[in-house]
User: Fold Type I-U CRISPR-associated protein Cas7 from Aromatoleum toluolicum.
Amino acid sequence: MATEPSDRLNALLLDRNAVAIVCRQPLESVEGPGGVVFPPTYAGKGDNAPPEYNISDFGDGRNVCTMDSVQSQANRIEAAFLTAPYRALVREVTVRAELADGEQRIIDVLEAPHRLADATIRFSDLRQDAERAFRNFRDAPRAVAELSPMSLLMGAFDSRGTYCKIPRALTARIEAHNVRRLVRRALYSAALTGKDLGHEDSKLSQIGLDNALDGPIPGGIIADGGIWREAVLNLIALRQNCGQRVTNRYDEKPSKTPPDDLSAYIFGLGLVSLTLQPETFLRQGCLLVAAAPVAATIRYADGAKTSFSLSTVDALEFAKTAALRFGVASLPPRQGHFQRELIDEANRQAQEKNEKKKVKGNRGA
Assistant:
C-alpha cells in the first residue's frame, strides 16, 4: 500500500539524518533566453553616483548578479499568506497606526519586514508580548509562533531589544549567472522649450520644459549563464527553532512517534512556501517565467541525496492539518495600536547610546 503524503512528510521531519530540502529551478525572461532583464539597483559609491547592480565578479570572466535577495523573497512568500487559502494557516496579528494626516493604516505582521522584531510591533502595545516571547524563545518558542510563526521559519533578530536572534530555516533567492551589463541613455525632447517661451537665459528641464539628457545609467543585463531560483528548507534550524534541543545520532532510525505540533506546524508552512509559485513580476523590466520544472532533493548529513516530489495540494493539506493540531483556529485575532509617543523616547535613548560610544572611542584614542 502506498505511503500517505502526510506519513512520508512526518517521517522526513523526524529523520535526524535529513538536514535540508533543496529546490532549484531555472527561470528566463518572458522574452525568452537571452532577453534583457533588470536586477534591483542599489546606491552607488560617493555623492551623486549612479545606482549599481549587485554583481559579484570572480575575476575569471564569471560573475553572479542578485535578481531577488533572500530578504525580498521572504517578503514575497509572506505576502502570499495574506490571501486565501493560505490566510487560514496564520493567525491574524495586526497593528493599527494613525498617520500624520489622520489616515488609519493597518499593518499585518506578515507585511512587517522584520516580522516580530519589526518597529511596528516594538512601538505598539503588543511590544511587551513580543519581548516576552523573544526572552522565552529558547525554552518556550510556542509564544513566538502564536504571534508570528513566520519568525520561526524566516528568522528574526530583535536587534533593538532583547537581542534574541532566530535563525532562518527557509531561504530563497534568485540569481543570474555570467551576466553582461548594459547601459542606457535617454533624451527627453520637450514639446515646448524655454526658447519657445521666451526663457532663453534659464533652463526649464527641471519642471518638464526644455530638452534633457540622462545617463549613462544601468540598462539591464543579459544572463549568459541563466537565471536560477534556489530555495532551501533547513530542517536542523527548523527543529531547533521549535525547541528540539537534543541532537540525536545521525545513524539512529527515525522515531515513529508523531512530531510535536509546533514542529509540524512550522514544517507545514515551510512546505507550502517551497511549493508556492513564486511571483514572476519582480520589478519593471523583470518579468520572469519558469524555464523548466523545479528539481527538489533531500540532502542527508552523510552527503547522500534523494529526489523529493511534493504537490502544492499535498503541501497545503499537510499544513492545514498541522495548523489545526497546533490550534490556529482557536487563536483570536490580535490588533495592537501604534504608540507614536514611544518614538521620542527611543530617539533619546539612541542618542545617549551614540554619545557614550563617542566618549568611549575618544578615551581609547
About this structure: The longest strand covers residues 18-29.
